[in-house]
Amino acid sequence: MKNDFTPQEIAEMHDRNENFSGKVADFKKVRLYNEIKNELDNFSKSCDNVIGVDSFELNPNEKNTILWATMTPAVFLDRDGIKQLVSIISKADHLAFTSSNDAIRIVVGIQDIWEK
């Protein structure tokens, strides 16, 4: 199994997921997605270390989705920033941290948004 996928290969795999075609949205999960998206936007406005936030739009061909905040390599959060981040993370089904030389990315995932 190949373990060294390029970002382009990962994006292509994401875009051509042929194994799932959702028919009905779980509206509780859709509301959760919108809530997390709003909280990430508010977090980015109140934290100077956030470079940007983004997400994959909900897609019936993808059972799950992710949202993320890109931050500077060194992050200092005050009490309010900690509370905001904890609230976002506690609502997610999945959590990942990635890094590069110039950024840290906090990725939260929501699973099972679409049902067959």
Structural class, from secondary structure content?
A: alpha+beta
For the biggest sheet, the summary is:
4 strands, antiparallel
Order of helical and strand elements: HEHEEHEEE
Q: Kindly report the average pLDDT value.
A: 87
**What is the topology, as strand order, of the major beta sheet?**
2-3-5-4
* Low-confidence runs: none
Shape: flat
Oligomeric status of the shown chains?
A: single chain
Helix proportion range: 25-40%
Q: In angstroms, what separates the terminal alpha carbons?
A: 29 Å
Number of strands: 6
The whole-angstrom Rg is 15 Å
Continuous helix count: 3
Please, how many domains?
A: 1
Strand content: 25-35%
Helix and strand layout, with pairings?
Layout (H helix, E strand, L loop, with lengths): L6 H9 L8 E2 L1 H20 L3 E6 L9 E7 L7 H13 L2 E6 L4 E7 L3 E2 L1
Antiparallel strand pairs: 1-6, 2-3, 3-5, 4-5
Helix pairs in contact: 2-3
